[in-house]
């Protein structure tokens, strides 16, 4: 019997609906396959999946309950490990979040932090094959490849002497884009024009620093350089710098002031940093001027200095320097050196950039999430004598009370008492508590509540550098720290810090509870669990944490320490101290991600 051909209207409507549905699903799956494999959507969806996994503990109610259990000591197992792909995670510099933001003035490369309830409560694992870092000073020249197996810079910049892979190591010949033969000959050349030797220059800022070979080479001259670069296409340049033991910080000059006080740096250096100094009516040059100490030196190498097809940019750069009365020291090839005037003798007459002096209501040292201003900060807007040449040379400036200490009432007396107190405390740390300070095991140190920098000053003879952090809501004492020849940043500890995981050997905090409190209040703005998870993120395996506070706070910290896989011990304070406090010393255990941790 032959097939009966019915008109379409007579066919089974249910059969057609089923066939249509199956066909649609099939073609939809094919389309999805092509989208995932051949378009960026696949990458973004994979990233989204990882983010979902990271956020598994971030249901606010579940998260708050876990924080409470940890604080009370009722959470009897360690906080979970983060996923394996989070080994280099920086919460405030997460490309997956920030790539959605505006490119205008590089807004998307600045800090943008998730809300605490959006932040996963988990411990960052080390990468597979991680080893305890090579010790200083050997680390200046080589680090373990397995600790940060990112070959991109070595592949792209190896011919310029940045870094090369050699056996189990990355090695650093000391070169850079503008000094492929090494930073040492380049610095020797600069020394013909500026006082590299002799202690006149002490604090330097290297903008867009690469792997920080310039700052690393200046250490032997007694110049302490804070190098910065954003998290960008080179991915891990600041991570490499810190692994080498060179002071460095993840940062972008974009829409906000950099988190440093006014007139902090004796030398500001840009070697092919590609910062458009004269764009936006010279806003970026004005920010450099805010940071540069009167009488200090500005060095720019590379574009646009006598650079092909950049005649206008080079002319504009010279024009803005002239407008601010900078003295031209030399133009040598593609390098220019200027000297900033000592005081307020420069009259900002009508100029093409529309620059004028800031009014007295604008504190130039206020620099935490502070929008860039196009006005020029007069020297007189900050009390004290701090021009280069008026402050003592290094090392005398370390212990001489700077007049900027008067930012606090009875500031000079406070400064001297603080210096004596930390000399005693550090001696107690070394001689009685037998901490590793002064040994090759400790190179990168952080003081999370630095005040006048007394802790760092007491370590000046040790082979360490200290990142002095002044909490943004406390008195702005960071200028004092720079005046004494030390370095640091402003920060709010209710947010993650701008550094990679595993970058500090030793983290110190006096008064940890004050870091999470509202100023002048007993009410908390955030919690100790999140803060200690962040300390753990920054600390290297087998690194040391020292926390001083009241006995009640230290008991709470000790409970949390077990949850973040630290081994804590509690000690009495030094005998000379009359403050009611205890000292917790903890070691971060060297744990690794296991298959059951995923």
Automatic annotation (TrEMBL):
The GO cellular component terms are: endosome; membrane; trans-Golgi network
User: From which residue to which does any coiled coil extend?
Assistant: none
Keywords of the record, alphabetical order, are: Glycoprotein, Membrane, Methyltransferase, Signal-anchor, Transferase, Transmembrane, Transmembrane helix
Q: What is its main location?
A: membrane
Chain ranges passing through the membrane: 21-41
List localization entries: Endomembrane system; Membrane
Single annotated GO MF: S-adenosylmethionine-dependent methyltransferase activity
Query: What GO terms in the biological process aspect are recorded for it?
Result: methylation
User: Which membrane topology term applies here?
Assistant: Single-pass membrane protein; Single-pass type II membrane protein
Catalytic activity, EC: 2.1.1.-
Q: Which Gene3D superfamilies match?
A: Vaccinia Virus protein VP39
Q: Does the keyword Membrane apply?
A: yes
Judging by the UniProt lineage, the source's domain of life is Eukaryota
Q: Which family does it belong to?
A: Belongs to the methyltransferase superfamily.
Name by which UniProt lists this protein: Methyltransferase
Which organism does this record belong to? Hibiscus syriacus
Taxonomy of the source species: Eukaryota, Viridiplantae, Streptophyta, Embryophyta, Tracheophyta
């Amino acid at each position: 019997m032959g097939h009966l051909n019915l008109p379409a209207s007579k066919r089974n409507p249910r059969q057609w609906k089923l066939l249509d549905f199956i066909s649609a699903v099939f073609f939809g799956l094919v389309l999805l396959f092509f989208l995932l494999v051949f378009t960026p959507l696949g990458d973004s969806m994979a990233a989204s999946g990882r983010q979902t996994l990271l956020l598994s503990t971030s249901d606010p109610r579940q998260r708050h309950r876990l924080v409470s259990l940890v604080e009370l000591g009722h959470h009897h197992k360690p906080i979970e490990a983060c996923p394996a792909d989070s080994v280099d995670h920086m919460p405030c510099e997460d490309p997956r979040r920030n790539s959605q933001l505006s490119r205008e003035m590089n807004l998307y490369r600045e800090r943008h932090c998730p809300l605490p309830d959006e932040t996963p409560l988990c411990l960052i694992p080390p990468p597979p094959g991680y080893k305890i870092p090579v010790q200083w000073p050997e680390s200046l020249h080589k680090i373990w490849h397995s600790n940060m197996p990112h070959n991109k810079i070595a592949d792209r910049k190896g011919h310029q002497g940045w870094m090369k892979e050699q056996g189990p190591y990355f090695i650093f010949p000391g070169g850079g884009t503008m000094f492929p033969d090494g930073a040492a000959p380049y610095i020797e050349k600069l020394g013909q024009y500026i006082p590299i030797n002799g202690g006149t220059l002490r604090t330097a800022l290297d903008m867009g620093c690469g792997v920080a070979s310039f700052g690393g080479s200046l250490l032997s001259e007694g110049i302490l350089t804070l190098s910065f670069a954003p998290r960008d296409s080179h991915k891990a340049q600041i991570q490499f710098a810190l692994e080498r033991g060179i002071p460095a910080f993840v940062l972008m000059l974009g829409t906000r002031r950099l988190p440093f006080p006014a007139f902090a740096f004796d030398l500001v250096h840009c070697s092919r940093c590609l910062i458009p100094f004269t764009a936006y009516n010279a806003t970026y040059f004005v920010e450099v001027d805010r940071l540069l100490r009167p009488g200090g030196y500005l060095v720019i190498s590379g574009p646009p200095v006598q650079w092909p097809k950049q005649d206008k940019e080079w002319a504009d750069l010279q024009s803005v320097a002239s407008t601010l009365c900078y003295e031209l020291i030399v133009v040598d090839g593609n390098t220019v050196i200027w000297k900033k005037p000592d005081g307020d003798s420069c009259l900002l007459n009508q100029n093409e950039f529309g620059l004028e002096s800031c009014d007295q209501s604008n504190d130039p040292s206020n620099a935490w999430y502070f929008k860039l201003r196009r006005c020029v900060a007069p020297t007189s807007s900050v009390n004290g004598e701090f021009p280069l040449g008026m402050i003592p040379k290094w090392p005398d400036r370390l212990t001489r009370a700077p007049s900027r200490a008067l930012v606090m009432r009875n500031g000079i007396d406070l400064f001297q008492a603080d210096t004596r107190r930390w000399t005693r405390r550090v001696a107690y740390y070394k001689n009685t508590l037998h901490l590793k300070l002064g040994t090759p095991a400790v190179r990168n140190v952080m003081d999370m509540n630095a005040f006048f920098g007394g802790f760092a000053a007491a370590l000046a003879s040790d082979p360490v550098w200290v990142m002095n952090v002044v909490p943004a809501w406390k008195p702005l004492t960071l200028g004092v720290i720079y005046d004494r020849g030390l370095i640091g940043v402003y920060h709010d500890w209710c947010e993650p810090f701008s550094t990679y995981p595993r970058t500090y050997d030793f983290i110190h905090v006096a008064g940890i509870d004050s870091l999470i409190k509202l100023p002048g209040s007993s009410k908390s703005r955030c919690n100790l669990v999140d803060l200690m998870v962040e300390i753990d993120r920054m600390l290297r395996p087998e690194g040391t944490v020292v926390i001083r506070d009241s006995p009640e706070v230290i008991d709470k910290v000790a409970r949390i320490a077990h949850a973040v896989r630290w081994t804590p011990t509690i000690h009495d304070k030094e005998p000379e101290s009359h403050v009611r406090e205890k000292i917790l010393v903890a070691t971060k255990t060297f744990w690794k991600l296991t298959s059951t941790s995923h």
